[in-house]
Design brief:
The structure is a homodimer of 340-residue chains.
Chain A lengths: L2 E7 L5 H14 L13 H9 L2 H8 L3 E6 L11 H21 L4 E3 L15 H10 L5 E3 L19 H10 L3 E3 L11 H19 L2 H4 L5 E3 L10 H10 L5 H4 L4 E4 L5 H10 L5 E2 L22 H7 L4 H15 L1 H9 L3
Helix pairs in contact in A: 1-4, 2-4, 13-14
């Protein structure tokens, strides 16, 4: 099996965005009408997937995507706690409809209701609903709900601990994934995403999160941000800061995906990061949707780059399936229940 | 000749830091005594260089370093405009003493007096002093004087234009280099530096800075942050955002240095970035001072990684000397005046 661990529902029917626009208009000015989601038919959901993610999944030879709401639209920095909760629940419910319509191809990862200065424990209720009631297998955790102002504490701060405790209890991983940026310095997918990946890794290096949570599993997407390219810098910093080696201190708990959109980048990733820590992913459809004029193939068809590495069968199996099933045990259980 | 374009005076005699501590104590509470710099003898300056940067320069087989004050100590986010001006001038004067004592091995690049919400045109006076009176050949420009809060406008904003006009007029490049971080989310050398590099590149991608300043030359240090590793993402984003190809839109004006502390990273850099855009550098002594236990050599001995690439003689000459002399024409003129 080939499982893509990082896909977003960026192609949802337009009623969803219409709702969001109305919701925020009402939040800004309560004299605007209360928002309500116009009905979305099963056919509309089906079409939005079949013509997009599922078509590409098939064309590219993959079987399944771990699927979550559009990351840039989580926008935890707008509205308030209630707005975020309603919007989050709606998005997760829509993912649930996709996974019900295409149970063999999609399994859910949830968005969380986060807001600036709202304790992360308030996100646990929606996490539990998605994992325990909707059959989801993980979540996306935003390390910067302020949207590029980084006004909250680092991930290693005890303020996050109640949530990590719950992740361990439920035995689900989190992907560390920011949302859109309201800071004009940071383009969302071209700067904020990669900066957040890099930042999270360095927070883990400085802190002792995995001493406190030896069973916690976190995925840093987009190939780990700048980290593999600067692997020597991080090994050297660990040494200078008297931290244990990265392999012990971080890489028993942290995984990088393969959302790196050219062969030289993927080559580097596999050269410096242990294959046990790499999860196949394409971010489909995410930051970059076009075709690379140099190759004639889609930038985000990351399977092609991995295929070009000519890994051993055992390593291929790890990257495309085994690691993902290990990191997402609820996915593994769901597949086993189907005899897969 | 082998010229390292990125070295910092991180080994200055302790009187400098004593002054800074007193300066800030006085700023916080004017009842503390006014700060004054205790005398630093030529021998002290000489020793601080001979036993450190110059020793390493010789051991590693390089000839010259483009030398600037310690970047993390610029700390534009502390004090006010006056504090920043006095501190900056003092640091630049100390660099000038180094270049006078070791004219064959060091040439100056200046720190700038920047402060939050102070117009960048106020930095021009010190730039001109350093270039026109002290014989410096460039400057370090901090894209985030807030120290990790990114409260100012992007580099492509017209607010920065008076400074870029002056750079073009003086025919000197700027290295885009942040300072320390006062945001607990960002470790300085492990996150803030690399994030700033990545951020600046994406700002250039979104904006039209080099249409307005076709002769402006900017160096993005630390191997370009996350950019080369995600070169496919950036090529794809340029396409999606209807920007010209990166080669035309950015890479006629932007250069990456080689401060990447392991061979696989350097291999990637040279694989994806045109050799004309790469400048040899080690950041000596910067983020990582130790030896790599895997190789037995210093992490920041980047010349070894480049040597291992077995570039053609012509490409070696570009990376180690030619590109630097082209990007820093005042360095080239200074060398030519010495018959080099």
């Amino acid at each position: 099996m080939i499982i893509d661990c990082h896909g977003h529902y960026t192609t949802a029917p337009p009623q969803l965005q219409d709702y969001r626009d109305a919701q925020l208009a009402n939040f800004r000015d309560p004299s605007n009408p209360a928002a309500s989601l116009a009905q979305i038919s099963d056919d509309e959901v089906r079409e939005s997937i079949e013509n997009n993610q599922l078509r590409a999944l098939r064309e590219r030879g993959a079987d399944m995507t771990i699927f979550s709401p559009k990351a840039s639209a989580m926008a935890h920095h707008v509205g308030d706690e209630h707005v975020s909760k309603v919007w989050t629940r709606m998005n997760n419910d829509l993912i649930h409809r996709v996974t019900n319509l295409f149970p063999d191809n999609f399994i859910g990862v949830c968005q969380l209701p986060q807001s600036v200065n709202v304790p992360i424990k308030n996100s646990i209720e929606e996490l539990e609903r998605c994992i325990l009631e909707l059959g989801f297998v993980g979540c996306n955790l935003n390390p910067d709900p302020s949207g590029g102002h980084w006004s909250g504490p680092p991930l290693t701060d005890k303020a996050w601990y109640p949530f990590f405790e719950k992740l361990v209890e439920l035995d689900v991983p989190a992907m560390i994934h920011v949302s859109g940026s309201c800071n004009p310095n940071f383009h969302a997918t071209g700067a904020h995403y990669l900066n957040a990946d890099t930042t999270a890794f360095m927070q883990f290096l400085e802190g002792d999160l995995f001493r406190d949570f030896p069973d916690l599993r976190l995925i840093i997407p987009h190939g780990g941000g700048a980290v593999p390219y600067h692997w020597g810098r991080y090994r050297g910093l660990a040494d200078m800061l008297k931290r244990p080696p990265l392999t012990e201190h971080i890489m028993r708990n942290v995984y990088f995906d393969t959302c790196v959109y050219h062969l030289p980048g993927i080559e580097l990733l596999f050269k410096v990061i242990d294959v046990d820590n790499i999860l196949f992913a394409s971010e489909m459809f995410g930051a970059v949707k076009g075709k690379d004029p140099e190759t004639g193939h889609y930038f985000d068809d990351t399977k092609r780059y991995i295929d070009a590495l000519e890994l051993s069968d055992a390593d291929c199996k790890k990257v495309f399936e085994g690691n993902v099933r290990r990191i997402y045990p609820r996915l593994d259980a769901a597949l086993k229940a189907k005899g897969k």
